Amino acid sequence: MEPTQHPTEGLIRQRLAAGDLREAFERLLELYSRKVLHLAFSMLHNETQAEDMAQDIFLRVWKGLPGYHGGASLSTWIYTIARNTCLTELKKRAARPTVSLHEPAFEEAMDAVPALQTTDRETGLGMDIKHLVEQLPEHYRQVITLFYLEQKSYEQVSVLLGLPLGTVKTYLYRAKKELLKLGSHHSMALG
Amino acid sequence: MADSDPEIERLSRKGGTSRDSQGHCAQNEARLFEYLDGILTAEEFSAVKAHLATCPECQALSEEWQRLDFELGACLAPPSLSPNFRTRVWQAIGAEPDSALARKRAQLRADWEADWADHRRRFLRAHFPALLDKLGYGVLASMAMYFVLRLCRPLWSLSTDVTTSLVQQWVAPLGLGLAALSLIAAYVVAAKKPLRRWLGAL
Q1: Cβ atoms of A153 and B38 closer than 8 Å
Q2: Nearest Cα to A131, choosing from A53, A54, A190, A191?
Q3: Cα separation of B115 and A99, whole Å?
Q4: What b/e string do you get for A140-168 counting C-beta neighbours within 10 Å, with b at 16 or more?
Q5: B138, B188 in Cβ contact below 8 A?
Q6: B105: nearest CA in chain A?
Q7: Which pLDDT band, with edges at 50, 70 and 90, does B168 fall under?
Q8: Is A11 part of the contact surface with chain B (CB cutoff 8 Å)?
Q9: pLDDT tens digit sequence for B39-97
Q10: pTM to 2 decimals?
């Protein structure tokens, strides 16, 4: 789906055509930093890492700016870089050996931290729903996170993730259905 | 890429909800989802709304979906960028050894050098033969002068002694010089054609 061009995008293109890379990049940061952060957050699920990733993404965008000839829409180009950068990071993470949170030694260490010793009542529903979202398959998780970050706009999710609108709707519907199912299992388990 | 959910498609085609089958709420879940997300047409929306008013089962399901929507909205709060994000990005760019600007500068330099080499080649190809021509004509003119001077020599010997001795002093080196020039001119004239070919091949 080709996004409609933001008025500032035209200005950025003019700056690029004039060879004023710095000014164009400044405008670009202004226009896309929040969206890129949301996209990174939906893929990495960690605010600090998402911001670091956003920085890395903009560094790549800066490097690529002299080679950008306006073939694709600026937003499509940036979101593609963002998605690819996040995917590379996720692949790196998958290749890295990790410590499971459920390993006995790690669980003991966690129990020793007072801030983490909260009861179910203290954590509330927010904590529960976050926990449930974490159990969703990755593609559902991305869509549902981005949907709520982007003020429930199907179009924005579609543009950011480069997915057809129908797919976004389907994923969202299935994700919510899955959440309800997980929620009912969770309640049953708690009694 | 998955297409639109067949379940959603099927229910959308049905247009509205019906209670004629057992467990209809489960069947119409997708429709309800679209209703709550506001992606139905006005007609479809009214149909679902009317059904909801009469069906407690679907009402309960709708409330469940709405609660989930509210909880998700509350828990998935958008992250915010730190105030110094822009500064950090520029610092990261500055710290890059192979920044785009440096690469662009190097590219420009390489382009300029290639252009300059091309320009020099073109200039030589266009103007060097003409230069050779001029050199050749100059040498021929010098030779002509030399022979004129040689022919005039008997005339100088008839004039006063002082003049004769002075003329003899500078005519000898001039003659030698002109002889050398004539050799060069001969070489140039002989080499002109092969040189043209060589320059043309460049």
Answers
A1: no
A2: A190
A3: 58
A4: bbbbbbbbbbbeeebebbbbbbebeebbb
A5: no
A6: A66
A7: low
A8: no
A9: 888 888 888 888 888 888 888 888 888 888 888 888 888 888 889 999 999 988 888 76
A10: 0.59
As to burial, measured by CB atoms within 10 angstroms (0-12 exposed, 13-18 middle, 19+ buried), residue A138 is exposed
Structure token digits, residue B189: 């004239």
In B77-163, where do the E strands start and end? none
Report the 10 Å Cβ neighbour count for B76.
20
Structure tokens at B151: 């022919």
Q: Do residues B8 and B30 make contact, with C-beta atoms less than 8 angstroms apart?
A: yes
Contacts of A118 (CB under 8 A, 6+ apart): none
Is-contact A75 A3, C-beta < 8 A?
Answer: yes
pLDDT of residue A85 exceeding 90, the answer is yes
3-state secondary structure of B76: coil
pLDDT tens digits, one per residue of B10-31: 444 444 444 444 466 666 777 8
Q: What are the chain B neighbours of A154 within 8 Å (beta carbons)?
A: 39
Residue tagged 């007609």 (tokens): B43
A133/B75 Cβ within 8 A: yes
Interface with B, mutate which of A160, A174, A182, A184 (most B CBs under 10 A): A174
The ipTM is 0.74
CA distances to A18, A121, A177, B28 from B22, in Å: 67, 38, 20, 11
Report the chain B residue with the minimal C-alpha distance to residue A179: B68
Token readout for A50 is: 């998402």
pLDDT at A112 over 90: no
